[in-house]
Design goal:
- Helices cover 53% and strands 19% of the residues.
- The protein is built from 17 helices and 17 strands.
- Strands 2-1-5-4-3 form a 5-stranded antiparallel beta sheet, with helices on both faces. A 5-stranded antiparallel beta sheet has the order 7-6-10-9-8, sandwiched between helices.
- The relative contact order is 0.06.
- It is an alpha+beta fold.
- It folds into 2 domains: 8-315, no CATH class; 460-611, Histidine kinase-like ATPase, C-terminal domain (Heat Shock Protein 90, 2-Layer Sandwich).
Length: 623
């Protein structure tokens, strides 16, 4: 098979392959069946022809036996008869009839002649000699008898409607006797067509060498054409072409000359006379048993093929159904479903595959469970290590964050307390301002740590009231701006921005964390814009800066505790990684949400939202 055909066959699904295989088997079985049916038909036809030849052979053999007997009896009669007393001679003819007569058959003398040495008829049994002498047939027979001596000289003629065999034998005195005996029709009449099973169209004929039918037994109705029976040339050619026996099929002609079927003809020559026995029968009737057997064989074969097709189809469907269940189970296993066991699919190869797949499923399930346990253990270990690292980093960062302002405060206070130093008022104020600023840093750090502790202990207690977000934003902007004189802060809220419910202290802390983060990462001279928007069910506040932006890998963890994005800016900016974590906890406690957008190199925008419901009342002091 060519590779392309193999590839095409591989693309065909299993039911189609089974159907194709069944079709090939049926075609092959049909071919084998057709071959055997053809062989059976041929053999059956041969046996039927052999039967017809046997019938014609039996009749021809009996005809030969009768002619041999007639020859012997006539010779004995001629040797003992007194030809000089014609009147007494012909009175002995009935005795010859009795000698020739056979049980069940009418064989009798039809004519007798006494011929002299010159071949002229001297006298006859019934016909005057001058008339016989003028008959050319009689002259030919007499001449032949004189020439050949004792013999059976059969001719295709009829006397009293019978074929006649003329037997010649020399007489006791001189000349010879020529006696015509009717044998053909008599012998044929003794045979029973029904006994020979020749059906309704079968018939037996005695035919001369010229093809003329001399005697017949059997039907002569319109369905059996007399024209076909009288086809003399056809029979003569058939007789001349065989040595002793032969058979053939010829068209059967209707009364109008049209062919109405085929005739089967079996021919056997008579040895003692130039005759032949012909057995005829309609081909349709002859081959009817063969055709019936063929039809029965075909019907049985078709029934077997149909039953086989049904059985194979049901079996293939059963196999395909079980294979489909295997495919479904394997797809489920490939999708991760290892809980459903495979059903028992029997003890054959499909069942063996199913059991092997179920063992594999159990092994995979056990392996997955072990892998999951190891993964959980590894995750716990990783989480523990991460927590330890985070704790270490946090303690290091807190220590650093505390040490820096404390060191600065200690230095300022120590300088002011030195007894040997005298500072003017300006220097003293500068030291005190530094102490104040560092104290604020310490206060902010401690506040974040306390808020983180409350969040971890689920101890956030909100005291909600109607608050004005634009006013809070302006207050916090002024506070952060005072500590970051190199930056510009802008508040852009709609004029009719509505009040919302919230804890003002906590919301101030949200603004403070957002603004301080923006200030940390904004370049000197940058602008920080605080804006607000109102939606149907919430208000949204955004803080936009012009910093370096946030790298994409940090987006998912930015609001987690102690997390700080790994960037160049974070390496120079101090922090604990708690500000955004606290913002998310406070906003979530208010029922809001937090998110951000960032573009590296162009800045970031941080958002938070709070639930909002339109109200009809006004705040105290509102116009």
């Amino acid at each position: 098979m060519r590779p392309r055909n193999v590839r095409l066959l591989r693309r065909v699904n299993l039911p189609a392959k089974i159907g194709l295989g069944i079709l090939c088997i049926l075609v092959l079985a049909g071919g084998v069946l057709a071959y055997f049916v053809t062989q059976a038909m041929r053999q059956g036809r041969e046996w039927i022809m052999i039967e017809r030849l046997a019938i014609s052979d039996v009749i021809a053999a009996y005809e030969d036996a009768m002619l041999k007997k007639a020859k012997a009896e006539v010779a004995e009669f001629a040797a003992s008869a007194d030809a000089t007393a014609p009147e007494q001679l012909w009175k002995n003819i009935p005795l010859l009839d009795r000698l020739l007569d056979a049980p069940g058959y009418e064989i009798r003398v039809l004519e007798a002649f006494h011929v002299n040495a010159d071949g002229r008829v001297v006298h006859s049994m019934a016909t005057p000699a001058p008339e016989l002498d003028a008959d050319p047939l009689i002259r030919r027979l007499v001449s032949q008898a004189v020439k050949d001596g004792p013999a059976v000289n059969a001719v295709s003629t009829a006397i009293e409607g019978m074929p006649v065999a003329f037997v010649s034998a020399p007489s006791r005195e001189s000349g010879l006797f020529v006696i015509g005996i009717g044998v053909g029709k008599a012998i044929l009449s003794g045979f029973d067509l029904h006994a020979w099973m020749l059906g309704t169209s079968g018939r037996v004929e005695l035919v001369g060498s010229d093809g003329k039918v001399m005697a017949r037994i059997g039907p002569l109705d319109p369905s059996v054409s007399t024209r076909a029976s009288g086809d003399e040339q056809r029979l003569a050619d058939l007789m001349s072409g065989i040595e002793h026996q032969g058979f053939s099929e010829y068209p059967n002609f209707g009364e109008n000359g049209s062919i109405i079927g085929q005739e089967v003809i079996a021919v056997t020559k008579v040895i003692e006379a130039p005759w032949a026995v012909v057995v005829r029968q309609s081909a349709a009737e002859v081959y009817a048993p063969v055709a019936s057997a063929r039809d029965q064989l075909v019907a049985v074969a078709l029934a077997i093929l149909l039953l086989s097709l049904v059985v194979v189809t049901l079996l293939s469907r059963h196999i395909v159904s079980r294979l489909g269940r295997l495919v479904k189970a394997s797809n489920a296993m490939a999708g991760g479903d290892l809980d459903a066991p495979l059903a028992d699919l029997g003890g054959d190869e499909v069942g063996m595959v199913a059991r092997a797949m179920d063992r594999m499923r159990r092994s995979l399930k056990q392996a997955n469970a072990e892998a999951a346990a190891k993964a959980r253990e590894a995750e716990k270990t990783s989480a523990t290590l991460a927590a330890e690292k985070m704790k270490t980093d946090f303690l290091s960062s807190v220590s650093h964050q505390l040490r820096t302002p404390l060191s600065s405060v200690k230095a300022c206070v120590t300088s002011l307390l030195r007894p040997d130093a005298r500072f003017d008022s300006a220097t003293t104020k500068e030291f005190l301002d530094e102490v104040d600023r560092r104290s604020d840093e310490l206060d902010n750090l401690i506040t974040k740590l306390l808020q983180t502790a409350r969040i971890e202990g689920d101890a956030i207690r909100l005291v909600k009231d109607l608050i004005l977000l634009p006013k809070i934003a302006e207050t916090v902007c002024a506070e952060v701006s005072s500590r970051n004189p190199g930056l510009s802060f802008h508040c852009e809220f709609p004029k009719e921005f509505p009040p919302v419910e919230g804890d003002q202290g906590y919301i101030e802390h949200v603004f403070r964390n957002y603004l301080e983060n923006a200030a940390k990462y904004s370049p000197n001279g940058g602008a920080i814009i605080v804006s607000g928007d109102v939606n149907e069910k919430e208000v949204v506040v955004s803080v936009r800066d012009e910093g370096s932006g946030i790298p994409p890998p940090a987006a998912e963890k930015l609001f987690e505790r102690f997390y700080r994005a790994d960037s160049e800016a974070n390496r120079t900016v101090k922090g604990l990684g708690l500000g955004l974590y606290i913002v998310k906890a406070i906003v979530s406690a208010h029922g809001g949400r937090v998110w951000f957008t960032s573009e590296p190199g162009k800045g970031s925008t941080f958002f938070f939202s709070l639930p909002y419901e339109p109200r009809t009342s006004r705040l105290p002091g509102e116009d």
